[in-house]
């Protein structure tokens, strides 16, 4: 296909023939593969594993699934162009993917404008399904508000008065910090104070930030940083004793992507959301993990789960709709139930958000590596706002 | 009669080096004056102070009685001061004619127009000026290709495009053959007489100086050491000392 | 108070490795005048190499040996790069090395991904410096103390080296007066290679020293490069002490911003920590406005190879008119022949062609540096998007976008044209970063990092072919206007100011005002491109005004050929098309894109159009002779 010149494709399009023989269902997958390889390489593996499984079992509605992967260069503009290509030239049945929130929102809006179905897998921004949510956009992963809500009961239990919040200075971090403040304030009877540190993404001056937290005499810390910022923050915090006698509640830090890097630096006792990959032994997760290990000789990361569950959801949806008609697919997405490695998830009709949850537990060190202990699965549906609240949040959306 | 150019107590130093140490002289309209002196005497610095490229530390420059000290080169161009450069300065990516045309456009206040072709502006007048300096046959050549002597001529044409009241020429004939020198200086002198413009030039070739200057001003190490008619200067003891070994004097 | 003191120490520790990396860049620039974008990549390689060596041996020898090995290995790589690539294009126009180094950034990034994998790699703590000591009652990492000492020690070592050795003498001579080195009869080639190697060593060494402080990641290159440029410029290009002082200032400003945290001022809560996003650029803008050559810099005599290669322009010939007409007709018939997506891609090409052409007006015709042209693209996009969201119609929204970018370019331009050369270019970058950070942080208005969605054109133009025709009309008109300017008196006056500034002054041209006009005009035209871009995508986010977009525009102009009319347009088309095609068909597309750009730079040292032009010109000459 690639080697054929676009003249040929153009000719075909010009005579109005269907672009491909209809023995496959094409899915367009857009992601920041080059910009976010740590998450997206395992993601793609998970994706391909699911697709292979489905196709080996005969495909969907008698057709095989075929995915066309595209790199969005981590910019919304390029993502939209690539989406145009997937829709108009490749004639995909739907588009899927995206990692960055701004890219997700852009593709979501594109989907609405061009009336194509968009299944967002990873972007976390609340806006995708709430403030700017639309009829064509659905999202798999628990959004920022849900992720934060999972940790709030644990944080409240600590009964601390003065909270330090460290977050990356962009929408995800700001939003998490705001939800945390809102939820915590509404939970507590006595006044809670917050001390905030916004760090430029990927460029935290960890020593200064840790120092500022110590000087501010915080009783506990809510951490939103991840990736390189997290590693820096942890190392400085360990060296300077920020975490001794000071509980930390932290978003996403229990994901293997981050624990693998932290190794013996893993701060024991942190309360985190994450993914204890080697310890979840539900039948659906065990099957997934075994298949993944067999195929790739490596254990899955959270990205793998996201990619895998996205494809499984798409397949289930296609089976339910029995067609690639957009309206039918939209209908099928609503209240769709799918078995994911994390158990059964539902794609909510009211805000197009899936109920895939996450694991909440504590960090610990084991054989020089970071692991999650005392973990439990928090179902996404238990951390959603009320339906009225969702309605209000989606009011501005069309 | 107010002199065309009147200089009083002009001073300039660069860091520790005093290049011009307080000099006074004047040039009258229709008069050709040579400013001479050995290398590093401060001649070019003087020119730079007169045409506004440098700001003097002290002293004043007047043009027909009007104090023009420290005005910008642009403003002085408008006031009728034109100059040529010792190290030729032209616009290398333009043709010879375009160089002159641009000066004409600037003179006529049309250099910032955006609704016409630049090359259609003042083409005829540019050709006349180029003809005057003997560059008519080269007018369409890229300026970057010109020989050094031709660049000097072009500089004169560009300077004349301003229809100046005061013309400063910094070593206008360097790099030319003797015949060429005379031709160019003769042209400058004719313009000087006809249009009653004040001409101040520096020159290392003493033949040229004595042949074309009405008056000579001699500088050495930033000071004015003598001035007067050519024969007076030729006879001056100090000038002889400064130019010791120079058989021209 | 003690909190402040400890934050000062934090700042000094951060300054150390920043200084090492920056001083390397400064030396390279001082001698070779290369704006080396790949310096951040060399730094990143330093961290990765140090990681590999340290974890392979796993002991003190491995760690400290790894730090040295990283410096040496990166220096060797620098020699290869200098000899194999840069040396071949020293004769090319200024800034061309810039895109060669940009290509290297792409290649090195993918190479690192291939060798070390996508995951972050957190190195070991430094043996012997794993813990903390009490300072003012606070635990302070011993490694940070070591870094502070090392930074100062390196400053003295380098100063002594440059003062006392013959190499140092040559280095100083080359930085301060190029003709003098020529006169000294120095083997310039050898000097350039040596300086490049030294600079790379410092980058690799500085990176390796960061190993205990941060994980090796694939984003380190671009994360540090802007900071390093800022340090070099604030300190003054080529100045050792300047780099040190600037690194300290920036690091301290950031440390204090963090130390202040949230402060209530005049009843408003202000989060100082948020300022860390742009602190360095605000400092740089302030310094440059008051000290146009940085804190310790001297005005640069003249940039290397500043001579402009351009044949006289005159009036467009009939052949040119005919070509233009045919070109326009071909462009207009594109949607009739090709599929819908071709129209989409071609729309991008048109938008970037205008963006590049407007930049070409500044850096080509006016001969001014600009590393921050995305500011005007971004403001055009945001102005249009915000107007559309406020209920304005399509056309008025476009006008709003252009008005916003015009206003900004008038204001910024006023400051920028007071500077020259690389300093001016860096001030444009500072303004662009300030714009970016405002857009990025002003959530209530600009939607913050998420941007604005739902900016679509009216029904008629939601058809891709129709939008393409619209873009062709608007961008085409913009590009034609850019071309037109070159033929007008204004264009001539601009070129005059570029060719010889003293002469331009002497014939009565107000150089600064002309340059200001060019800046404003280019900003407005860049804004047109941005405004159309917003409507073509339906959404925008802060990346429209971020550094990569400015760099893309530079690459387009230089790739196509600076000082040629067609260059920016051809560059935009080639770059956009290459990126689209490669991203689709190869896994390591970034490296392939880099390699192709490198190849193009080698084959067409004057840019694609420029090189073809001089080739045909010399062929004509030969056949005439
Ligand atoms: N921009 C400058 N910075 C520092 N010193 C300068 C500068 N311009 C001139 N000088 C110094 O001022 C003195 C006078 O120089 P100037 O160029 O005026 O001499 P000149 O009489 O024109 O010499 P020449 O006959 O060689 O042209 C010289 O010592 C020169 O080195
Ligand atoms: Mg002189």
Could you provide a short overview of the structure?
The complex is a heterotrimer of chains A (398), B (249) and C (625). By secondary structure, chain B is of the alpha/beta class. Chain B is built from nine helices and ten strands.
Keywords:
heterotrimer, A: 398 residues, alpha/beta, Rossmann fold, seven-stranded mixed beta sheet, B: alpha/beta, six-stranded mixed beta sheet, 24% strand, binds adenosine-5'-triphosphate, binds magnesium ion
Can you describe this structure?
The complex is a heterotrimer of chains A (398), B (249) and C (625). Chain A has helices spanning 6-15, 37-56, 76-89, 101-114, 144-158, 171-187, 206-215, 227-240, 256-262, 283-296, 302-321, 326-333, 387-393; strands at 24-31, 64-71, 94-97, 118-120, 137-139, 162-168, 193-199, 220-223, 248-254, 271-274, 336-340, 343-347, 358-366, 369-378. The longest helix of chain A is centred in the first third of the chain and has 20 residues, at 37-56. Helices cover 43% and strands 21% of the residues of chain A. Chain A contains 13 helices and 14 strands. Chain B has a domain at 1-76 and 199-249: 3-Layer(aba) Sandwich (Rossmann fold), CATH 3.40.50.300. The model of chain B has no long low-confidence stretch (mean pLDDT 90). Chain C has 625 residues and is mainly α. Chain C is built from 26 helices and 6 strands. Chain C is globular, with a radius of gyration of 25 Å. The termini of chain C are far apart. Classes of the chains: A alpha/beta (398), B alpha/beta (249), C mainly alpha (625). Chains A and C meet through helix 1, helix 2, helix 3, helix 4 and helix 6 of A and helix 1, strand 2, helix 10, helix 13 and strand 6 of C. The complex binds adenosine-5'-triphosphate and magnesium ion.
């Amino acid at each position: 296909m690639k080697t054929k010149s676009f003249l040929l494709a153009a000719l075909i399009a010009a005579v109005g023939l269907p672009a491909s023989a209809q023995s496959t269902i094409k899915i367009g997958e857009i992601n920041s593969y080059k910009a976010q390889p740590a998450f997206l390489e395992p993601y793609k593996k998970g994706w391909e594993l699911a697709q292979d499984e489905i196709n080996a079992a005969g495909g969907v509605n008698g057709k095989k699934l075929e995915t066309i992967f595209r790199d969005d260069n981590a910019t919304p503009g390029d993502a939209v162009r690539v989406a145009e290509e997937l829709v108009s030239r490749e004639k995909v049945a739907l588009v899927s993917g995206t990692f960055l929130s701004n890219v997700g929102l852009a593709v979501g809006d594109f989907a609405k404008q061009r009336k194509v179905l968009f299944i967002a897998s990873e972007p976390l921004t609340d806006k995708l399904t709430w403030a700017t949510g639309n009829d064509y956009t659905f999202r798999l992963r628990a959004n920022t508000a849900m992720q934060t809500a999972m940790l709030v009961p644990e944080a409240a239990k600590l009964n601390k008065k003065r909270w330090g919040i460290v977050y990356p200075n962009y929408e995800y971090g700001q939003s998490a910090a705001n939800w945390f403040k809102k939820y915590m304030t509404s939970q507590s009877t006595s006044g809670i104070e917050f001390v905030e540190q916004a760090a430029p993404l990927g460029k935290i001056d960890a020593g200064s930030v840790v120092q500022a937290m110590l000087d501010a005499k915080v009783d506990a810390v809510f951490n939103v940083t991840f990736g390189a910022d997290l590693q820096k923050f942890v190392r400085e915090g360990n060296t300077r004793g920020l975490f001794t006698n000071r509980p930390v509640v932290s978003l996403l830090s229990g994901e293997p992507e981050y624990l693998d890097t932290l190794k013996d630096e893993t701060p024991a006792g942190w309360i985190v959301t994450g993914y204890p990959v080697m310890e979840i032994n539900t039948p659906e997760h065990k099957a997934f993990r075994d298949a993944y290990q067999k195929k790739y000789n490596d254990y899955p990361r959270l990205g793998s789960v996201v990619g895998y569950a996205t494809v499984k959801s798409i397949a289930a949806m296609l089976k339910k709709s029995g067609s690639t008609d957009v309206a039918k697919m939209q209908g099928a997405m609503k209240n769709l139930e799918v078995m994911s490695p994390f158990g059964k998830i539902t794609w909510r009709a009211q805000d197009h958000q899936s109920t895939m949850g996450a694991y909440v537990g504590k960090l610990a060190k084991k054989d020089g590596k970071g692991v999650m202990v005392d973990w439990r699965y928090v179902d996404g549906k238990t951390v959603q706002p009320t339906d009225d609240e969702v309605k209000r949040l989606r009011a501005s959306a069309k | 009669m107010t002199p065309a150019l009147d200089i009083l107590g002009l001073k300039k130093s660069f860091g520790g080096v005093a290049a011009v140490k307080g000099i006074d002289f004047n040039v009258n309209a229709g008069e050709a004056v040579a400013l001479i002196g050995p290398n590093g005497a401060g001649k070019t610095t003087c020119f730079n102070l007169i045409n506004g490229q440098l700001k003097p530390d002290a002293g004043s420059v007047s043009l027909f009685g009007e104090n023009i000290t420290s005005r910008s080169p642009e403003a002085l161009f408008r006031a009728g001061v034109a100059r040529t450069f010792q190290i030729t300065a032209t616009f290398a990516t333009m043709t010879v004619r375009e160089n002159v045309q641009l000066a004409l456009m600037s003179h006529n206040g049309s250099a910032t127009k955006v609704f016409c072709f630049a090359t259609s502006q003042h083409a005829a007048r540019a050709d006349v000026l180029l003809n005057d300096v003997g560059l008519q046959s080269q007018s369409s050549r890229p300026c970057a290709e010109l020989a050094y002597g031709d660049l000097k001529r072009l500089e004169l044409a560009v300077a004349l495009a301003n229809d100046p009241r005061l013309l400063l020429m910094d070593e206008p004939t360097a790099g030319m053959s003797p015949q060429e020198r005379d031709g160019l200086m003769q042209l400058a002198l004719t313009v000087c007489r006809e249009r009653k413009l004040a001409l101040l030039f520096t020159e290392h070739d003493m033949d040229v100086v004595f042949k074309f200057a009405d008056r000579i001003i001699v500088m050495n190490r930033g000071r004015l050491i003598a001035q007067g008619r050519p024969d007076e200067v030729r006879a001056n003891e100090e000038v002889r000392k400064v130019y010791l070994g120079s058989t021209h004097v | 108070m003690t909190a402040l003191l400890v934050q000062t120490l934090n700042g000094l520790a951060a300054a150390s490795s920043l200084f090492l990396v920056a001083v390397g860049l400064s030396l390279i620039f001082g001698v070779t005048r290369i704006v080396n974008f790949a310096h951040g990549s060399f730094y990143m390689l330093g961290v990765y190499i140090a990681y590999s060596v340290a974890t392979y041996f796993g002991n003190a020898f491995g760690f400290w040996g790894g730090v040295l090995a990283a410096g040496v290995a990166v220096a060797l790589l620098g020699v290869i790069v200098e000899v194999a690539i840069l040396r071949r294009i020293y004769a090319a126009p200024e800034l061309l090395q810039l895109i060669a180094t940009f290509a290297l950034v792409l290649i090195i990034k993918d190479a690192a991904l291939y060798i070390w994998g996508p995951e972050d790699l957190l190195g070991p703590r430094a043996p012997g410096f794993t813990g903390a000591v009490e300072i003012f009652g606070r635990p302070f990492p011993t490694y940070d103390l070591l870094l502070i000492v090392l930074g100062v020690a390196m400053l003295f070592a380098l100063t002594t080296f440059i003062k006392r050795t013959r190499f140092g003498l040559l280095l100083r001579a080359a930085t301060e007066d190029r003709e003098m080195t020529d006169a000294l009869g120095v083997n310039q080639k050898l000097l350039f290679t040596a300086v490049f190697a030294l600079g790379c060593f410092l980058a690799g060494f500085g990176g390796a020293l960061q190993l205990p402080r941060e994980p090796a990641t694939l984003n380190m290159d671009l994360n540090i490069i802007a900071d390093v440029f800022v340090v070099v410029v604030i300190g003054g290009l080529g100045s050792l002490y300047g780099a040190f002082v600037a690194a300290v200032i920036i690091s301290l400003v950031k440390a204090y911003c963090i130390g202040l945290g949230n402060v209530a001022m005049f009843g408003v809560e202000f989060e100082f920590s948020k300022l860390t996003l742009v602190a360095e650029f605000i400092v740089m803008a302030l310094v440059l406005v008051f000290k146009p050559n940085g804190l310790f810099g001297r005005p640069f005599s003249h940039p290397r190879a500043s001579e402009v290669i351009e044949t006289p322009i005159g009036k467009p010939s009939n052949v040119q008119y005919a070509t233009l007409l045919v070109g326009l007709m071909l462009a207009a018939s594109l949607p009739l022949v090709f599929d819908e997506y071709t129209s989409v891609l071609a729309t991008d090409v048109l938008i970037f062609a205008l963006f590049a052409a407007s930049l070409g007006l500044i850096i080509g015709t006016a001969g001014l540096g600009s590393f921050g042209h995305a500011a005007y693209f971004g403001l055009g996009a945001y102005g249009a998007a915000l107007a559309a969201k406020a209920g304005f119609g399509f056309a008025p929204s476009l006008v709003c976008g252009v008005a916003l970018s015009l206003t900004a370019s008038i204001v910024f331009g006023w400051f920028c044209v007071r500077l020259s050369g690389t300093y001016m270019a860096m001030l444009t970058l500072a303004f662009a970063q300030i714009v970016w950070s405002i857009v990025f942080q002003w959530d209530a208005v600009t939607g913050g990092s998420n941007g604005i969605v739902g900016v679509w054109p009216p029904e008629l133009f939601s058809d891709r072919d129709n939008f393409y025709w619209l873009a062709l009309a608007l961008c085409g008109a913009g590009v034609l206007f850019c071309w037109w300017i070159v033929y007008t008196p204004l264009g001539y006056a601009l070129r005059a100011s570029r060719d010889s500034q003293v002469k331009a002054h002497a014939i009565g041209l107000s150089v600064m005002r002309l340059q200001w006009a060019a800046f404003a005009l280019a900003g407005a035209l860049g804004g047109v491109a941005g405004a159309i871009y917003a409507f073509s995508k339906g959404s925008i986010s802060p990346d429209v005004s971020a550094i990569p977009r400015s760099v893309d525009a530079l690459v387009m102009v230089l790739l196509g050929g600076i000082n040629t009319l067609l260059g920016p347009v051809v560059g935009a088309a080639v770059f956009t098309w290459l990126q689209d095609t490669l991203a689709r068909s190869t896994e390591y597309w970034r490296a392939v894109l880099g390699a192709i750009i490198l190849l193009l730079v080698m084959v067409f040292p004057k840019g694609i159009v420029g090189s073809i032009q001089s080739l045909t010109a010399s062929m004509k000459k030969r056949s005439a002779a």
